[in-house]
Task: structure prediction
Amino acid sequence: MNMETVLKTNHIVKYFHEPETFKVLDDINLNVNRGEFLTITGKSGCGKSTLLYILSTMDTLYEGELEIAGQKLTGKSQNELARFRNKHLGFVFQFHYLLPEFTALQNVMIPGLKLGRYTKDEVEYRAIEKLKLLEMDKFAVKKANKLSGGQQQRVAIARALINDPDIIMGDEPTGNLDKKNTHNVFAIFKNLSLSHKQTIIAVTHDPEFAENSDRVIEMSDGQIIAP
Result:
């Protein structure tokens, strides 16, 4: 069976220059297949969050090349990258970053309205479908600040899915959740990967979360030490 590569890096090197110059990423070569659930682990300071920041196209100050969904992204302008992110990438963070006075539905719709590919009614329909997928549709008109932490994170995942991204990137997506909700979020990611061929790349400190993903990339001192 041929696997389709959705993300590829070639010899990525990254330096920090404060308080003095040091190499934070050293020759990162990574291939991620479509539908793969990949986790990146390692001790604090190993470079995993820095790598995710580059993979997400937010950080452009690096050596080497990044390609996602067949597009070379290295060297593109900030405006081009912002458009690319909204269309091709979804993000789930440790903190959900929902707008508290907006309803769950309104929060999920935001990236869809920004993309401008669908009418407002179509975006609303799509948002409700994503909330259904996360079993959150019955809370659609509830304000975000009235939802529990686990519910808020599910709304954040629905928001990440609204534009059918090539990749969902998670930065400690369960870092702010208790054990039960951590298991719930993991089960959601696993189902998205298996049933919907959704590619997921998540940085995590949680060994159990990592061990149950499809592949674990372990990092140490800016290098990948276990593929």
Notes: The mean pLDDT is 89. The radius of gyration is 17 Å. The CA atoms of residues 92 and 170 lie 5 Å apart. The first strand starts at residue 5 and ends at 16.
